[in-house]
Specification:
413 residues, alpha+beta, 2 domains, 6-stranded mixed barrel, 16 helices
Length: 413
């Protein structure tokens, strides 16, 4: 009953503003501070989630979900592939060989990374990249001495489909082998994403091994769910031990791109931490509001105390009063933040058109190309943090209110 009384009086105190316009203004500012902090934090995290998702998709164009290495992989890859493909989480398995090489065309030289693949097996992995990639791999399967180039590499060197070029393994070139260079025909281009290095050349694995017989052979695994890579890794390592291949090592896409995603995660954390200070500013205003409310409501507090209200009841009254600003600010901020985050591209496009119309310059571009991704667990965490900060801000003023002595206040009333 006393708890309900505290809530009732606290809500009434938060609505009573007729005696003090300044108190009402400060209370509105505190609620606005919490609202803006929560809204901006949700929008910023959504933009960063969208950016991280985009970068992850770009990285996975060139980095396999799982990469398997073994000292005897060149001989054992079929055996391993058969066992690994039986795992229900594994979508496709394909071998590939990697080596450093030098590409020469029309007097231009470029250091490249040659990736020798089995086109028939690679199509199962690259099928998610679209029909164009599947057609390019089909052409590679049917050709002899054909290559597929990274789109940025071809653009940089001005290479077109049908051009002839020569490739030499860097190791054999350094050893001055006379048969180092071999001629190839360009069949087309492949997009390896923003983090593919921009220097990848695809060819058949047997032709890559002809360039350098010491090229390392690895297995590339595609999973139904890229985020299950760690769990699948443990299962596959157990399977490789059953095959008496203890030297098998498996690297997940997270481990391969750990520096990139580690930096993005740290940036996201620091950005969220800095933007959380906006909520803290709103909480400071809640402290100011309650301190002023305690001074204004001194006689009311004294009357409540003389009527039997305990110090705990008085504390809860002002905690509820301050909590109203925190709850309203957090609720409205979360609603507006999610609404803006889900429609950020459209809002930006409208701003582009408005500014372009006002300035007469149609080339103004804001952030209409950005992707946003609202993660509801993060929205809940932001709201919880804002409510917690708002609650902590009410404790000191509420404690001060509970210490008011009725006799001292009512002496002059």
């Amino acid at each position: 009953m006393r708890k309900m009384l505290s809530i009732f009086i606290g809500v009434r105190f938060s609505r009573a503003r007729k005696h003090s316009g300044l108190l009402s203004f400060v209370s509105s500012i505190s609620m606005l501070g919490v609202l803006l902090g929560v809204m901006i934090l949700i929008i910023a995290l959504s933009v960063m989630n969208g950016s991280i998702s985009f970068l992850r998709n770009e990285a996975l164009k060139s980095v396999p979900h799982l990469t398997v290495t073994n000292e005897t992989m060149s001989k054992e890859w079929q055996r391993l592939a058969k066992v690994f493909s039986e795992n229900p989480s594994v979508k496709a398995v394909a071998p590939y060989a990697e080596l450093e090489a030098v590409l020469t065309i029309n007097g231009l030289t470029e250091f490249v990374q040659v990736r020798g693949i089995e086109p028939a097996l690679e199509q199962a992995i690259a099928g998610q990249a679209g029909d164009r990639a599947a057609q390019a791999l089909q052409a590679l399967e049917e050709s002899r001495n054909g290559v597929l180039l990274d789109t940025r590499l071809a653009s940089r060197l001005g290479i077109r489909s049908g051009d002839e070029l020569s490739i030499a393994a860097l190791d054999r070139l350094l050893r001055r082998s006379k048969s180092a260079q071999q001629g190839f025909s360009v069949l087309g281009y492949v997009d390896f994403g923003a983090y593919g290095g921009g220097n990848i050349v695809l060819m058949k694995r047997e032709e890559a091994l002809a360039l350098d017989v010491n090229a390392e052979t690895l297995l590339r695994l595609s999973l139904d769910d890229a985020f299950s890579a760690d769990n699948v890794k443990r299962d596959l390592l157990a399977s490789s031990k059953m095959l008496e291949l203890p030297s098998t090592e498996i690297e997940t896409w997270r481990e391969a791109q750990s520096s990139l995603f580690g930096a993005l995660a740290m940036e996201k954390f620091l950005t969220g931490l800095m933007l959380l200070t906006i909520v803290a500013v709103g909480a400071v205003n809640i402290v100011s509001t309650l301190v002023m409310a305690v001074a204004e409501k001194g006689p009311d507090i004294a009357i409540l105390r003389t009527m039997g209200a305990s110090r705990g009841v008085i504390m809860r009254v002002f905690i509820v009063q301050g909590g109203v600003s925190g709850i309203m600010g957090t609720g409205l901020g979360a609603f507006l933040g999610v609404l803006i985050a889900n429609n950020l591209a459209g809002i930006s496009l409208a701003l582009e058109r408005a500014v372009g119309w006002a300035t007469g310059d149609s080339n103004i571009v804001f952030v209409s190309h950005l992707q946003t991704q609202v993660v509801w667990s993060e929205v809940a965490l932001v709201c919880l943090a804002a409510l917690l900060i708002s609650l902590i801000a009410t404790l000191y003023p509420a404690y001060r209110a509970s210490k008011i002595e009725p006799a001292e206040v009512l002496r002059y009333e």
